[in-house]
TrEMBL record:
Disulfide bonds join C36-C462, C44-C54, C47-C83, C57-C72, C199-C206, C254-C295, C399-C410, C430-C675, C460-C464, C520-C525, C522-C555, C527-C540, C561-C566, C568-C577, C579-C586, C600-C605, C602-C650, C607-C617, C620-C623, C627-C636, C633-C708, C654-C683. Residues 627-713 form the Integrin beta subunit tail domain. PANTHER family: INTEGRIN BETA SUBUNIT, INTEGRIN BETA-8. One of its GO terms (molecular function) is integrin binding. This is Integrin beta. Its main location: membrane. It comes from Astatotilapia calliptera. InterPro entries: EGF_integrin_2, Integrin_beta_N, Integrin_bsu, Integrin_bsu_tail, Integrin_bsu_tail_dom_sf, Integrin_bsu_VWA, Integrin_dom_sf, Integrin_I-EGF_CS. Residues 470-493 are annotated as: Disordered. It is found in: Cell membrane. Belongs to the integrin beta chain family. One of its GO terms (cellular component) is cell surface. Residues 35-84 form the PSI domain.
């Protein structure tokens, strides 16, 4: 058996026993056409192997004359093309739960599944943690010479451990066994004096080396356990590794000799200070026979030690799972790293590091390991070796807090909590012979004495109805049914002319065989294959590619072509399946269809009035600029005093709903058009009114208050405004000019005028000085 291992914790949920069926494939259903339809498909088996979404039509007259590949398609497409459901061979995925088998921990216990290649099925297995279990603990101790002091520490363990375990278990039983190594060279010294006493050089009496010796079966008598431990003697071997894994397998599979109880939690404690031999190590001793995984105890001694190799880790893992055994490794710290890598390959294992093999340390190790192992729920799913390559398994846990474990492990499971596992099993392919097969899959919660058996029925062949005729490549084109028996009709070409043989392949009034698109075989048209689509019919006169195209796709890819016409999918209509049946695309923002001004045709609005436009007929530029078209109606209502009693007098003038309002501001919005009615005779006859077609019918609201504004008053206001603006601009210009002048006068260089003044003064002073100097000379 090959195992997929998943680890999970339980959750406090209601018991869930319903199963989920999930059928899927690597391709989506939107791409189902390309998956199912291929010219290379010539049989029902080929069709169904394309994926669980494909179906084969075995109706005799389906697409008469078309290629065999046209019989393979999605069921919905075959149905549209005229194939009835009772003539379809489809992938059948079923999950059946046998609820008659009672259980207290694992449920359900028996499940039957029907699968086809490419399909998968899901089901849920629940595992409940009980509050107190009886416990069987088997001590498997390395009795090589280096373990002498450790062996002495076991003498006081029995009674003390029994007292400690009463807190966690309702009943504790203990057993004992010992191991050293395979009693062959080069693992032991084969000198005659060393075989019976490996410690003769040290003048110590030792017991002979042995692969495994079962000493004490499970017992609740702690005094007997202590007495047996005190009688144990050490042994010896030559190399460092020991035969611990070989002994573990024998302790697991020899259930009757060891005395494992069916209802108990089973713990196997391996005590050693050295690593263990692995598979293929026995070749050094010339032992090449693989271990068979069976019990070989004779007189409580393992007799197959010198004949079979050490078991592989996978084989040991399967046997521990199969026999519901937890394994605990008590090793010295020097070997901790070696066994740390080992336990990752053994489900339900616990590793304890002990500085010294003292009784208190061993007791703490066993108690901690028991609590740790029970708080972690592990599930192993195993498929038979013969079919392991044809199936895949996926497991998803549901932890106690309702979350799924990220690392496939949930810890902290408490008594009376339930773990749920969503397990999916899928099939890749069929056996090489193509026949149906039965496969057994085991779902084993590690350490539990209950498991779930999953029986898979793989359907690789087609039944094609009661008659068993699939109309595929396995049937001869000339095979017909006569007198209830299938006989092959072979035409006698020596006695039949060519014109006679082709007579049945010509349409009435035509001299062309099979409409020029096929060949006549056995008096029946076999239509040619076309890259454009299927050619079919009694005379190959029909095809599925002569329908209208939409967007470059036949029938807009929303239907199939049958007899030259598109048969649309649900929700589509039209010659090329381009029109949605739904009118949702014509709904305007106000909830009306085309704003109440048109009809929805092929998913688009067609406006009733050419003046309206837009995607929802919401725009009407001409309507918004023709307020005067309503003046006649407004004038009629004004002449009757804007009263409801007289409103009926204007029905012949107004073809719309009319209402009166004092305040027109409350009707502001995009759907309302604001207008003014102005009378030439008096400003008191000027009124505001609004129009709208929001509800699909034209409406008119007239203000009951006149809105009169004198035109002369508007002219005065305009003149005064212009004058005020002119004066304001002049004042601004004057102010700016004054500011510029002031700035220049007080600048360091002075203004242009000041500069000229100072220049003139200097000239006068120069002239006076020159005149004075001239007088002095005279």
């Amino acid at each position: 058996m090959t195992s997929w291992l998943r680890t999970y914790d339980s959750a406090c949920l209601c018991l869930l026993l319903c199963c989920l069926v999930v059928a899927f494939s690597g391709e989506s259903f939107s791409a189902g056409d390309s998956v199912c339809r291929s010219p290379g498909i010539t049989s029902c088996t080929d069709c169904l192997s394309r994926g669980p979404q494909c179906a084969w039509c075995f109706e005799e007259g389906f697409l008469d004359g078309a290629g065999l590949s046209q019989r393979c398609d999605l069921p919905v497409n075959l149905l549209r093309r005229g194939c009835a459901l009772e003539f379809m061979e489809q992938s059948e995925v079923k999950v059946e739960v046998n609820a008659t088998i009672s259980s207290t921990q694992v449920s359900p216990r028996d499940i039957s599944i029907t699968l086809r290649p490419g399909s998968a099925a899901s089901f849920i297995v629940s595992v409940k943690q009980l509050e107190r279990y009886p416990v069987d603990l088997y001590y498997l101790v390395d009795v090589s010479a280096s373990m002498q002091e450790n062996l002495d520490q076991l003498k006081t363990v029995g009674v003390a451990l029994s007292l400690r375990m009463t807190e966690h278990s309702s009943d504790l039983w203990l057993g004992f066994g010992s191991f050293v190594d395979k009693p062959v060279s080069p693992y032991i010294n084969v000198h005659p004096s060393k075989i019976h006493n490996p410690c003769s050089d040290f003048e110590i009496r030792c017991r002979p080396a042995h692969g495994f010796h079962h000493v004490l079966s499970m017992t609740s008598n702690m005094s007997e356990f202590t007495r047996v431990i005190k009688r144990q003697r050490i042994s010896g071997n030559m190399d460092t590794p020991e035969g611990g894994l070989d002994a573990m397998l024998q302790a697991a599979v020899c259930q009757r000799a060891v005395g494992w109880r069916p209802e108990a939690k089973r713990l196997l404690l391996l005590m050693t200070d050295q690593p263990s031999h692995l598979a293929l190590d026995s070749r050094l001793a010339g032992i090449v026979v693989p271990h068979d995984g069976l019990c070989h105890l004779e007189d409580n001694v393992y007799k197959g030690s010198t004949r079979m190799d050490h078991p592989s880790l996978g084989q040991l893992s399967d046997k521990l799972l199969e026999n519901h055994i937890y394994s605990i490794f008590a090793v010295e710290k020097q070997q901790y790293q070696w066994y740390e890598e080992l336990i990752h390959l053994l489900p339900g294992s616990y590793l304890g590091k002990l500085g010294l093999f003292q009784a208190p340390n061993l007791i703490d190790l066993v108690v901690d390991a028991y609590k740790r192992l029970l708080s972690e729920v592990v599930v192993s799913v195993s498929v038979e070796d013969k079919a392991v390559s044809r199936y895949w398994v996926s497991v998803t846990p549901l932890c106690p807090d309702g979350s799924t474990a990220a690392e496939h492990s949930c810890t902290g499971v408490q008594p009376d909590q339930t773990v749920y596992f969503n397990i999916t099993i899928g099939q890749h392919s069929c056996p090489d012979d193509g026949k149906d097969e039965d496969v057994t899959v085991m779902v084993r919660p590690v350490g539990y004495n209950e498991s779930t058996v999953v029986r898979i029925r793989s359907k690789c062949q087609c039944t094609c109805g009661p008659a068993g005729q699939c109309r595929d490549a396995n049937a001869s084109p000339c095979k017909q049914t006569q007198n209830g028996n299938n006989q092959e009709e072979r035409p006698n070409y020596g006695m039949m002319k060519d014109s006679d043989s082709n007579k049945n392949c010509k349409a009435d009034g035509s001299d062309v065989v099979c409409s020029g698109r096929g060949v006549c075989e056995c008096g029946k048209c076999v239509c040619e294959q076309s890259r454009l689509g299927a050619v079919y019919g009694k005379y190959c006169e029909l095809d599925d590619f002569s329908c209208p195209y939409e967007g470059g796709l036949l029938c807009g890819s929303r239907g199939v072509c049958v007899l030259g016409e598109c048969v649309c999918e649900d929700g589509w209509t039209g010659d090329s399946c381009n029109c949605p049946v739904s009118t949702a695309t014509c709904q305007s923002s106000n909830g009306l269809l085309c704003s109440g001004r048109g009809k929805c045709v092929c998913g688009k609005c067609v406006c009733d009035d050419p003046q309206h436009s837009g995607d929802f007929c919401e725009r009407c530029p001409a309507c918004q600029s023709t307020c005067q078209s309503y003046w006649t109606c407004v004038g009629c209502h004004l002449s009757h005093g804007l009263t409801q009693e007289e409103a009926g007098q204007c029905n012949h003038t107004c073809a719309l709903l009319v209402g009166y309002m004092d305040d027109m501001s409350g009707q502001a919005g995009e759907t309302w058009i604001h207008c003014m009615y102005i009378s030439n005779d008096s400003c008191r006859n000027s009124y505001r009114f609004q129009t709208s077609s929001k509800s699909g019918q034209a409406q008119l609201l007239i203000s009951t208050r006149p809105d009169c504004v004198s035109s002369s008053l508007r002219l005065v206001r305009t003149f005064l405004s212009v004058c005020a603006l002119t004066v304001l601009c002049g004042l601004v210009v004057v102010a700016v000019s004054r500011l510029l002048l002031q700035k220049r006068r007080w600048s360091p260089g002075g203004t242009v005028e000041d500069a000229g003044y100072h220049c003139t003064g200097k000239v006068l002073r120069s002239e006076v000085e020159l005149h004075s100097s001239a007088n002095l000379k005279d």
